Amino acid sequence: MAQVKKETGARLMVMEPDVAAVESTAAGRPGAKVDRVLHDGDVVELGGTKLVGRLTPGHTPGCTTWTMEVGEGGRKLLAVIVGSPNVNPGYFLAGNKEYPGIAEDYEKAFATWLSLPADLFLGAHGAYFDLKAKYARLQAGAAVNPFIDPEGYKAYITERRDHFRREWERQKQNPGSPAP
């Protein structure tokens, strides 16, 4: 992140719970100076577009999901760019000494995601929202924008929440066993 800032002149904005980790210069840490500390609900304006940062902790304590209004066919839609609802391999949900509240934070994040009235489903990684297939359908002249997918959004978040809960239960039954 420090290199990107240096080469682009970009400002780095990070949710408050992740600031210390981002600014840390410990081995393997980015050591990037945060220019603006964000809190849940803060607005960031980019070229006239207003993005709202939503704190969705779990993946990291300051994991951020972004929402913004977009126009489509004369109507306003809410785009949701999901941070990360995944429990990565090696994560400890039960007995995590470095991030003691990780499981509870994931629950808060899932509650936030499920409360958002998402029309346009996007994410930090294209696989979350089936980017390649949706883009191909759009390029092929789909009659309806395939990225407008409120049902797919709810289904994806619900599936990720259920997966998280199964993994959390598994770890509680098997202390010291990280996510596979």
List keywords for this structure.
five-stranded mixed β-sheet; 2 domains; alpha/beta; two-stranded parallel ribbon; Metallo-beta-lactamase, Chain A
Question: What would you say this structure looks like, in words?
Answer:
The chain starts with a helix and ends in a 7-residue tail after the last helix. It has a 5-stranded mixed beta sheet with strand order 3-4-5-6-7. The relative contact order is 0.13. The chain contains 5 helices and 7 strands. 33% of the residues lie in helices and 21% in strands. The chain has 180 residues and is α/β, with parallel strands linked by helices. It is globular and about 50 Å long. The chain folds into 2 domains: 1-38, no CATH class; 39-173, 4-Layer Sandwich (Metallo-beta-lactamase, Chain A).
Q: What is the SS-derived class?
A: alpha/beta
Number of helices: 5
CATH homologous superfamily assignment of the largest domain = Ribonuclease Z/Hydroxyacylglutathione hydrolase-like
Main sheet?
Answer: 5 strands, mixed
* Total strand segments: 7
How large a portion of the residues is in β-strands, by DSSP E?
Answer: 15-25%
pLDDT < 50 runs, ≥5 residues: none
> Strands of the largest sheet, in order across it?
3-4-5-6-7
Q: Please state the oligomeric state of the protein chains shown.
A: single chain
| Mean of pLDDT | 96
CATH topology assignment of the largest domain: Metallo-beta-lactamase, Chain A
Order of helices and strands: HEHEEEEEHEHH
Rg from alpha-carbon coordinates: 18 Å
**Span between N and C termini?**
28 Å
